[in-house]
Design brief:
696 residues; alpha+beta; Glutathione S-transferase Yfyf (Class Pi), Chain A, domain 2; binds zinc ion
Length: 696
Amino acid sequence: MNDVHSNPLLKCKGLPNFSNIFPEHVEPAITFLLEDLEKEFSRLESGVQPTWVSLVEPLDQISARLEWTWGVVSHLVMVKNSPEWRKVHEAMEPKIVAFSSRAGQSRPLYEAYVSLKSGSDWATCDVAQKRIVESYIRDAELSGVALTGGIKERFNAVQIELADLATKFSNNVLDATKSFDMDLTTKEEVSGLPPSLLSLASQISKNAGMDSTPETGPWRITLDFPAYGPFMQHSRRRDLREKVFRAFVGRASEGESNNNPLIERILALRQEKARLLGYNSFAELSLSRKMALSVSNVENLLEELRAISFDAAHREFDELRQYAKAEGAAEGTDFQPWDAAFWSERHFEKSFGFTDEQLRPYFALPNVLDGLFGLTRDLFGMTVEPADGEAPVWHPDVRFFRIYDDKKELVASFYLDSYSRPQEKQGGAWMDKCIGRAKGIEEGKSIFQKPVAYLICNQTPPVDDKPSLMTFREVETLFHEFGHGLQHMLTKVDYPAAAGINNVEWDAVELPSQFMENWCYDRETLFGMAKHWQTGEVLPEEFYQKLLTARKFMSGSGMLRQIHLGLVDIELHHRYEPGGKETPSGVRRRLAVHTTVMAPISGDEFLCAFSHIFAGGYAAGYYSYKWAEVLSADAFSAFEEVGLENRTAVRELGFKFRDTILGLGGGLHPMEVYRAFRGRDPESKALLKQAGLLKQ
Ligand code: ZN
């Protein structure tokens, strides 16, 4: 096992041999690899020349080896989790992080990149190369590499304290979430709860050492979303909804896990960090590496959407109140925040009268894949072919496919791991890179490495003789992840640092994925795949119409909520003055006047649990959700404009999408990529129309 030559994790190129990789390979492989890369890196640092060939390429090769090996390990931890895998991953992760930050903060490399930019080689660099160099310089500067003396020391101290605060913040949220539970013991107390929630609540009770069955209880409700969300939607006990709601919005706002002081400290330190780096605010720092570029661009967009969704959300809530009143509920005259999810759900059921379960038989995975691959052929001229058995896989259910262009040339390949395996596989769905595109000279030989992607979903597995029958949401998810995969796989960029999704700005990265979701609502695409798995009967028109309408249900309120959070995030990171008269919570309440339908109740301290911006990567970036939706809806509307039924025009536009949005990767600023596809800047009209918020 300690023989590094036979360690499958040190192959560092080509498809991983999944059938032979075990947790015990990790430590020797990573130890050997890091030692080796450390040596190479030091050699690069000491003899560095400011040219593309002697600076960027060797650095790419170092990154490529690390990404290959660590990529396989991280992947297996997600899809083959076990105590052994978790242990080796946890043990090695800090070493990987340390190496990566050393590489990103190397002063000699930074100086070489700066010289490259001002030297004679610069004129020979193409646009993508220039962007790679500029991104490196910017990211290095944001990590403090250009600072000196006392300023640098202070910067490093701020960084360390911020990392520590982020950990404390999320631990407080976890602790506060765990500290609440509510045990229900009578049928009356669980009135309205669906069987899936009763099962979950009974399981939670069992995990806590109680004797419980889904039929007899006791049922434990917690503030974890899988229990909290459905409880608020379905519980008929208004008093219990209030109790759970108050606990949820008050999380981590008092006592030992009080996040309020942490929020103030985080905001003050972020502001200081931004100023040390020469920015006026943390929002400006954050936006310097995003597509939106400036606070005013973000705020203008959010305001455009706000002005329309604010009125719509008020109308939607009025309707809910009216509906509650008509049903004879007290909420009709005294509607409270803990009534919103419940009545919205009742109203939905009444208006649409169909459930996820009813649609499943029309969405069998094999038919859905045919539909998705057919669309890929029609839109992008790419053929997807099964290649099962041609690549080792980590589970017998995993499939392998190859993508060919119209000349039958191999373009890329991907793994598809579709089914949920709760005992070993992380929930959710994602696309990840297995191998990235790279073309160049390595050890005197020219190489052309074609991209390989992991597409991971968590849908219902096949049971007995039935294929996997998907909910419509699961179909959308598959299209979404495939969209990310297409950007990784159809890239035309040969420089690894800007190929596929690499070097694509955070707020632009969801464009291809959300774009693909739109096709699930396209008549031709949908009816091409929605066929009853036994009878072959096509999805009834009535259901299609309902899907189209359901997409617009409560869309104003949904949009307004995201705008509220997005604007609060920007305000806190741009105009808020730490230590001033207004508290962060006060900022939120001031903005809530024109960004919510029901003002936050006293005790609603949602910021204290807003981990996205205080413990995650979304600081001054929460708006990205809406930004990317605007882009994807606007991109899709180009297809509607030429007429979705005009398949020749659609294909022509599809090729353009392939060659710009999917092809150019991070080699060009996303606004220029967008303009190359759309011929103009993005507009929000298409998203508003899609949400049913614009009169046509
Ligand atoms: Zn995504």
